[in-house]
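Protocol step 4 of 6: structure prediction from sequence.
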Amino acid sequence: MAMRLIEIDHACVAYGAPPRPVLDRIDLEIEEGEFVCVLGQTGCGKSTLLRLLLGSEHPVHGQVRIDGQEHHQPDRTRGYVPQKYSLFPDKTVLDNITFGPEVSEFSLWGRLTPGFYRRRRELRVEALEYLRRIGLREADGRKYPDQLSGGMQQRVALAQALMTKPRILLMDEAFSALDPGTRKEMQKLIRVLWQSTGTTVLFVTHNTHEALRLGTRVIVLAKESPEHGSRVVLDLRVPDPCREEEIPHLVRRLESASENTEAAPVATAR
């Protein structure tokens, strides 16, 4: 039986003075191991929702709980892959991938101990394995980000996030800047990695076809009016397998929900 991992209870987010609502009355439960895609028009709060789960954003009302606990800052349980590659330009690919675990496991003084160098060797072995899994070669580990294509950089950013072995992976328009061919390759890669790791994934996208091909579930955010924050207007379970002939109907349903803010939440696709 799947375990409930994420609970968002009547969460509201507002910015500015006077406060301008961005998210309003968000209620959401996500089980461990789900692949949830988040759709919605520009400015509807999709990225804000990810930041709530990351712990870098906090609701003005309501609660966000992971394993029943509130988290007030980012930690290793949640990996994050932004739209723009988050790589350090002055570090090699291998150093980029191992940076997170090294910083979290060792203080500045701890890096002067023999244990640090032993652990660093272990991390580099792990990083090389991740390079293989994301389709890069060992020789690529010695390169710098500006020596890689956009698709290769995004693969490294994904390995960087997975290196900390997060229970939750948050991806914010991570493939939107890629050309169609590379984007399709990355879609296949993230599905394979999700299936092999069991990581819970929340994937923000504008592309309804991408959401249906990747997710086990798709939620749509939309505003009732400019004065209100966004809410969940549709919560759709994606059939497994999703037959090709079903996709046009589901795309219309998702796009209609995004445009029609009077739509009522729906739990399951049939």
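Step 5 (inspection) to follow. Helices lie at 46-54, 93-105, 114-133, 150-162, 180-197, 208-214, 247-259.
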